[in-house]
Specification:
The structure holds two protein chains of two kinds. Chain A is mostly helical. Chain A is about 70% helix and about 0% strand. In chain B, helix 2 packs across helix 3, helix 2 packs parallel to helix 4 and helix 3 packs across helix 4. The chains are: A mainly alpha, B alpha+beta. The structure holds adenosine-5'-triphosphate and magnesium ion (MG).
């Protein structure tokens, strides 16, 4: 017992205690609902069995039903468009801004700080703002694009089936930009200046320095930004009710919004749970790829 | 000999701060030049200006006869060894060595062969596939050296490359760097704040202070003929002793404090206030009567030498014999008049 207490104070016991506390918290707050969700996706759920844990077993019937839904492939396509282009836009523009602000011109850090505004704002508010900007008849975006001569007549971003998903993508890129830029800025700042100087003396031009020093040194940051970006986009919910409500005709519905619609608008909780489990599998695969890619971390 | 690096009236400002003041320096092809001076005197700034990592505010810089204003570092064909080594952490030793070759489009096989050759001369052959974080400080230092020599540049710049190594390794690397320099017939500029390093390695030593070149010359010339009190005190270890005094009536000695006298080899202006400088190794304990005295405040013996420090701490004496003095003894000193330096008390200039 003395031994045990001593190890609690300054041995392995203390580490286990810390990890244990976190584990208990994780299991209670994240693990149990997750398991409940997975369980529900294999059960028949209706309004009367909502409160119980044990329900009739459905096997993979819920999954088959979800895939057979008429909207399934459209939603899948939308989800991929939403995730891919949101992440791509956030990452590329965020990286460009991070590089830009890393140039240390006067006021760089102040202006960079202003970008935090988009991060602080609630998604619903951002959605409302973008809803106005994107409005077909009085929106600012149309006015600007027309002024630049890029479009001739108004584009109905939110109600045109060809554009509705892009309306949300644009708003989401803006929303996630600051987060991407900030993390990438931190990564950039962590690269020692003398590496660039050494590379410059070794004969590297600006592009070669970016390609051979910046990118490899940023590898773990980029991995973290992309995986957090994936999680962030798959979690992004607020923008949909604020901008398009998934419409018109599901052309801007993505998996997470669909799952919510199933559960809380159609009260088909089993299908809602099933869709979220399918998303979970996707995220899991992405995380595994990320973890594998950072395993050979070489940052000195 | 032609000048490989030629600096003419270089000025460098950092905003309001004047870091280099009218610096002119000619570095001969094949020479090993050391820049020394106290911390913050502008050694690194000068070196980085040569490399092009800092833009000079005004003045001319020529490398191998070409004007360098506006030429970016990558077109100057100069290699630099950084104090921090600046190895690329995500590359193996071999990749670090061949980085510049690969940038210049040298083929894989050729680069590999070249890396093997350089690794052999720098003792890195067994370490080619390691990453920098898997190397000791000394090994990293060698990689930094190897990376510099692999592409045969117009000049090597070293910014305190040995300051992160322990004393023994430092002495060894000093010799290795100099040997490498001779073997390659390179032109090297070596920044250090350690005057011993400068004296032992360089053909030409440049002493800087506050952005100014105080004196430049061959190491022993600097030791024998320092142009001012600063250089006299900076070059040589332990540092030169300085004693305030007045030139005697006959002009053949310096009268110090309580009737002591330092003899002079030449006639000086009588009654002039001066600072006399004598190196600790040039003071001898007198056999008989002496004209100059010293009260022992501290005795240190290393075995090969004895260091005596005066009570007030102002004077030091080094002797290769073992001296049986103890604290409080009054010691008479012989001073070779030819080895006494005189400086002006105000300007510090040599008289
Ligand atoms: N980027 C900068 N902005 C403003 N002042 C600078 C800058 N870089 C250097 N200085 C100043 O210029 C002076 C010379 O600096 P430098 O680095 O050349 O000194 P140094 O002789 O190499 O000293 P050390 O032996 O400590 O390395 C210092 O007073 C320093 O404060
Ligand atoms: Mg320096």
């Amino acid at each position: 017992m003395r031994r045990f207490l001593a190890s609690l104070r300054d041995g392995v016991g203390f580490d286990i205690l810390l990890v244990g506390a976190a584990m208990v918290f994780l299991v209670a707050m994240a693990g149990l609902p997750l398991i409940y969700n997975v369980l529900m996706s294999f059960q028949q759920v209706d309004m009367f069995t909502l409160g119980s844990l044990i329900r009739p077993w459905a096997g993979f019937q819920n999954y088959i039903d979800v895939v057979r839904e008429p909207a399934f492939w459209l939603v899948t396509k939308n989800t991929f468009i939403f995730v891919f282009f949101s992440m791509g836009g956030q990452f590329i523009i965020g990286f460009a801004l991070a590089l830009f602000f890393a140039q240390n011109f006067p006021g760089a850090s102040t202006i960079r700080g202003l970008f935090l505004v988009s991060w602080v704002m609630p998604g619903l508010v951002v959605g409302a703002i973008w809803s106005w900007i994107l409005a077909g008849d009085f929106g600012v975006l149309n006015t600007i694009l027309k002024g630049l001569g890029i479009i001739q007549s108004n584009v109905f971003w939110k109600s045109d089936p060809a554009f509705s998903i892009w309306a949300v993508v644009i708003a989401n890129i803006w929303l996630g930009l600051a987060f991407n830029m900030l993390l990438l800025s931190v990564g950039l700042a962590a690269i020692p200046r003398d590496l660039y100087e050494a590379a410059e003396l070794d004969g590297a031009n600006a592009f070669q320095r970016f390609w051979t020093i910046t990118l490899p040194m940023m590898r773990s940051t980029i991995g973290a930004v992309l995986s957090l970006g994936l999680i962030g986009t798959l979690q992004q919910f607020d923008l949909f009710p604020a901008i398009t409500e998934g419409g018109p005709a599901n052309t801007s519905t993505v998996a997470q919004y669909w799952s919510w619609q199933m559960s809380f608008q159609l009260y088909d909780f089993a299908k809602g749970a099933t869709i979220s489990v399918m998303m979970l599998v996707l995220v899991l695969i992405a995380s595994i790829i990320y973890v594998r890619s950072t395993r050979h971390e070489v940052r000195g | 000999m032609t000048a490989q690096i030629e600096l003419k009236n270089i000025d460098k400002h950092y905003g309001a701060f004047h870091a280099l003041k009218n610096v002119s320096l000619s570095i001969a092809k094949g020479s090993f030049v050391a820049l020394v001076g106290p911390s913050g005197c502008g050694k690194s700034t000068l070196l980085r200006s040569i490399a092009g990592l800092e833009t000079i505010t005004s003045g001319d810089l020529h490398i191998a006869g070409k004007e360098m204003t506006g030429v970016p570092p990558r077109h100057r064909d100069i290699a630099m060894v950084f104090q921090s080594y600046a190895l690329y952490p995500h590359m193996t030793v071999e990749e670090n060595l061949t980085y510049s070759l690969r940038l210049h489009g040298v083929g894989k096989a050729e680069a590999k062969a070249k890396a093997a050759e350089v690794a052999a001369t720098t003792g890195l052959s067994a370490l080619l596939s390691r990453y920098p974080r898997q190397l000791s400080g000394g090994q990293r230092q060698r990689v930094a050296m190897g990376r510099a020599i692999i592409r045969n540049p117009k000049a090597f710049l070293f910014d305190e490359p040995l300051s992160n190594l322990d004393a023994a390794l430092r002495v060894q690397m000093r010799k290795e760097i100099r040997a490498l320099h001779d073997r390659l017939g390179a032109t090297s500029v070596y920044v250090t704040h350690d005057q011993i390093e400068a004296m032992t390695m360089a053909d030409w030593v440049v002493v800087m202070r506050d952005g100014i070149i105080e004196q430049q010359g061959r190491p022993l010339d600097l030791y024998d003929q320092p142009v001012n009190r600063f250089v006299a005190g900076f070059i040589g270890s332990p540092a030169m002793n300085f004693v305030d005094g007045v030139i005697s009536e006959d002009g053949r000695g310096v009268v110090v404090g309580a009737g002591d006298r330092i003899p002079l080899a030449r006639q000086a202006e009588p009654n002039r206030k001066v600072v006399a400088g004598v190196r600790p190794e040039n003071l001898r304990v007198a056999e008989g009567a002496a004209s100059f005295h010293f009260e022992v405040g501290n005795v240190e013996s290393t075995g090969s030498a004895t260091y005596l420090t005066s009570k007030d701490g102002a004077l030091q004496l080094v002797q290769t014999e073992r001296l049986g003095f103890s604290v409080g003894d009054r010691v008479g000193l012989d001073i070779d008049p030819a080895l006494v330096h005189l400086f002006d008390p105000q300007s510090g200039a040599r008289i």
